[in-house]
């Protein structure tokens, strides 16, 4: 590029200036990308400026609960019908009656197997014992410095783990869509070949 413009040698000040300009340009782009990515994943549930007009997730949960109750009601009706058929003393040669009795027997076997599996799981959990609590109580970290001693360390916890949790920076993940949006807002990049190639990916 330099030879094309008859530039054979660059002064160190020019190199430093270009390096500083490139660094500032990249810093500005990264700051914009961070804001765009945070805005994409941010929620406004706790903001007083927004009022929830409809909660689709709660409506779906309500419909799922209705479906579950309806299925449970039908299963109970079928179970009662099968139990009545199993206790019936009617003609044993009736194919439909025999089918219902066989289905009732399979249902009872399935319920017995489920009960045995549940008892086995409870026995295994009892043998393992209760879960051990972590040395560092997460409520102390969430509430600030409550429960810390004079050295700023919670009793029963290591200073390294506490410092790591308090000083761990929040990671913002930037995706290709954030980069494309940022490039579309930049005057120097919104008509560039780089943006066109990014849109093709």
Automatic annotation (TrEMBL):
Coiled coil: 59-120
Keyword list, A-Z: Coiled coil, Initiation factor, Nucleus, Protein biosynthesis, Transcription, Transcription regulation
Gene Ontology, cellular component aspect: transcription factor TFIID complex
Single GO term (MF): translation initiation factor activity
GO BP annotation list: transcription initiation at RNA polymerase II promoter
Domain Transcription initiation factor TFIID component TAF4 C-terminal as annotated: residue spans: 2-198
Family to which the UniProt record says this protein belongs: Belongs to the TAF4 family.
Listed PANTHER family: TRANSCRIPTION INITIATION FACTOR TFIID SUBUNIT 4, TRANSCRIPTION INITIATION FACTOR TFIID SUBUNIT 4B
Official protein name in the record: Transcription initiation factor TFIID subunit 4B
